[in-house]
Write a structure and sequence with these properties.
Elements (H helix, E strand, L loop, with lengths): L1 H7 L21 E12 L2 E9 L12 E7 L4 E4 L15 E9 L2 E11 L11 E10 L9 E4 L8 E13 L2 E10 L4 E8 L6 E6 L8 E10 L2 E9 L15 E6 L7 E2 L3 E2 L7 E7 L5 E6 L17 E2 L6 E6 L2 E6 L7 E8 L4 E4 L3 E7 L5 E5 L3 E6 L4 E6 L8 E5 L5 E7 L2 E6 L4 E6 L6 E4 L4 E8 L3 E3 L1
Parallel strand pairs: 1-20, 4-35
Antiparallel strand pairs: 1-2, 2-3, 3-4, 5-6, 6-7, 7-8, 9-10, 10-11, 11-12, 13-14, 14-15, 15-16, 15-17, 18-19, 19-21, 21-22, 23-34, 24-33, 25-30, 25-34, 26-27, 26-33, 27-28, 28-29, 30-31, 31-32
């Protein structure tokens, strides 16, 4: 692991000015991906994530670890030591995604250990291992020895070698594990296992759609909101349909009907986000019983996946944490209330006159008094527009998109936009979080221009996170 330690020592050499985000979690060096195993122990939140310190100094395949931040208020963070290394024969090529379960003061963590063979393999039906491992901790920082729970031999024989990303939860005094999977017939699904002790697992069932919806489902997360059960997942290989499914892979949820353990069925897939960069969503419940979602502010296997910040020694970030709420069979995403602590200067504007301001790090809440066309210009050439006649909200970028061009979503009645702009990110919450649009964005121009519209706005300059490195 010496090369990982050496890469981390280069943190002081990383360009801390160009495009480093002010109020988003980023890797110290290298790259970041899926959030994992988030939990609250006492008054401290723990946020783990896929982390590859070597990603920006070599083009060779290198093993990822679990990075770790902790916080008590989502404003002040501490970068903790690496939580899990790829230091066993069962995870030597990467500590992949997983989840955690806090019970009786012990944090139980489950993850996929990746092993990749050298040779002439297709790495779908052969050439790799996807092992389920577990570790535990009393403080969320120090973990005990690894325990191998399952290998590919324990999965149904109809599966490819792609079975990963375990989610664990407890219900009716029984433990359940949900795994994302790829069927030999190239159909995405999740596998359900049960256990009485979190060590010995028995296969129960699979959940999938009647018609094939992508060839692989990653990062499964079965949750309950408003007494309704949902399966969050990231289907890969879904064909685009008009304004839906426009990214290389998708991130969203199905409502689960019936008993997920026996004969459950899935409703229509709903996208979480209609922007360019939102993937690998994972959730946890805090001590107030609130369901909080984290996601990777990036997109797997897209033409723009590798950001231009890689030349500065780092890339990728986590999206803002979001509180999930249920209403009318739909999941709303709301910025967690702790983010209000970042506000430090408030102005109110009547947008019936043309608006022009300069800022890169801000929150802007626009209340539309009537349904009307809308046009907003950000940075060098980013545009947010609403066509009232077509009920279409569109995000368009050119040079500042770095390969990202246009995304749209149908909104029948646009009444509110809540926009979070950071140095190199943009997150738009539409109609109180009914939909969102998230993206990375680049360029140093700080223009904010809005053509006159029948609306009012609250504008806040935002302070940066305080991170103890």
């Amino acid at each position: 692991m010496s090369n990982i330690h050496e890469a981390e020592q280069a943190f002081n050499q990383v360009n801390q000015e160009t495009y480093r985000l002010h109020y988003h979690l980023m890797p110290p060096v290298g790259s970041l991906a899926d959030p994992n195993g988030m939990c609250q122990i006492g008054d401290t939140y723990h946020i783990y994530y896929i982390y590859n310190p070597l990603a920006c100094i070599t083009d060779e395949r290198t093993a990822c670890v679990w990075g770790h931040y902790s916080t008590q208020d989502f404003v002040h963070f501490k970068r903790e030591k690496i939580a899990i290394y790829p230091d066993s024969q069962y995870d030597k090529d990467g500590v992949y995604s997983g989840s955690s379960l806090l019970e009786s003061g012990v944090l139980h963590v489950f993850y996929t250990g990746n092993v990749r063979y050298t040779g002439d393999y297709d790495y779908v039906t052969s050439g790799r291992e996807q092992n389920v491992l577990s570790v535990s901790s009393l403080d969320g920082i120090h973990f005990n020895h690894k325990q191998l729970l399952m290998t590919n031999k324990d999965f149904p024989h109809t599966m490819t070698k792609h079975v990963r990303d375990p989610q664990i939860f407890k219900e009716d005094n029984q433990y359940y594990m949900v795994l994302g999977a790829r069927h030999l017939e190239n159909k995405g699904l999740v596998l359900i296992y049960e256990s009485q002790d979190m060590t010995h697992w028995t296969y129960l069932n699979e959940l999938t759609t009647s018609n094939t919806f992508g060839y692989m489902w990653e990062c499964p997360d079965i949750i309950i909101l408003g007494k309704h059960r949902f399966l969050i997942a990231c289907p890969q290989g879904v064909e685009g349909v008009e304004y839906k499914y426009q990214n290389s892979h998708q991130c969203g949820y199905f409502e689960v009907h019936g008993d997920f353990r026996k004969n459950g069925t899935l409703g229509e897939f709903q996208q979480f986000d209609y922007g360019f960069d939102f993937y690998s969503a994972r959730t946890f419940i805090n001590q107030n019983g609130e369901r909080i979602l984290f996601a990777w502010l990036g997109m797997s296997e897209a033409s723009y996946t590798k950001n231009q910040t890689a030349q500065d020694g780092w890339e990728q970030a986590l999206a803002l944490p979001r509180l999930l709420k249920y209403k009318d069979h739909h999941i709303y995403q709301i910025p967690i209330p702790q983010l209000k602590s970042l506000r430090h200067h408030h102005e109110q504007f009547n947008l019936q006159q043309k608006f022009h301001k300069n800022s890169l790090c801000f929150e802007m809440i626009i209340h539309f008094l009537t349904s009307t066309d809308f046009h907003m210009h950000l940075r060098e050439d980013c545009y947010i527009s609403y066509n009232c006649q077509e009920s279409l909200l569109t995000l368009t970028m050119y040079q500042c998109g770095d390969g990202r061009e246009k995304r749209s979503v149908i909104i029948q009645d646009l009444y509110k936009l809540q926009i979070f702009s950071d140095i190199s990110s943009l997150e738009i919450f539409i109609n109180d979080g009914y939909y969102t649009m998230s993206t990375r964005i680049f360029g140093n121009c700080d223009d904010i221009i809005i053509n006159k519209v029948n609306a009012q706005a609250d504008f806040y300059e935002l302070l940066p996170y305080q991170i103890e490195w």
